[in-house]
Design goal:
Elements lengths: L5 H21 L5 H28 L10 H11 L5 H19 L7 H25 L1 H9 L1
């Protein structure tokens, strides 16, 4: 490990610290810290989805406004411009709602049952999302790559 650049060593140390913290939270009797971790990961996943939607719209030369409702507008634009289906947008809206709550609430306000439902559903939502992105965005990027 001594041969690795300092930045990589620092990241390894950070990840190891995070893993230690994660292990400690799993051992706790009180699960509020675990719920906060679940919330963080859900938030991370939805942020990634938003980043992919922004890039997908950018590929199509669609501008995204920076208004107060830009997160909701992002989903609407993605539907209007055939990046995702209306059905998937409805499913993602639940995660957008959670994202808003997570950003503006306190961690101790997270409740286990609603979190578990979101966590249980995210693999299927993610699969649909990736499938629709590949179908709808891949179809416009492939001809560009052939030029």
């Amino acid at each position: 490990m001594d041969n690795l650049p300092r930045q990589i060593i620092a990241e390894i140390e950070n990840v190891e610290a995070a893993l230690k913290n994660l292990e400690e939270t799993m051992d706790r009797k009180v699960k509020t810290v675990v719920e906060l971790a679940m919330g963080t990961f859900l938030h991370n996943v939805y942020n990634g989805i938003e980043n992919i939607l922004k890039q997908s719209l950018k590929i199509k030369d669609i501008q995204i406004t920076n208004g107060d409702n830009w997160h909701k507008e992002l989903l609407n634009l993605a539907v209007v411009h055939s990046v995702i289906s209306p059905e998937l947008s409805d499913e993602l809206y639940e995660y957008l709602t959670f994202r808003h709550f997570f950003v503006h609430a306190y961690g101790f306000m997270l409740e286990e049952a609603p979190l578990e439902s979101l966590v249980d559903n995210i693999p299927g939502v993610w699969s649909k999302f990736i499938s629709e992105i590949e179908q709808n965005i891949g179809s416009i990027t492939e001809p560009m790559a052939k030029k």
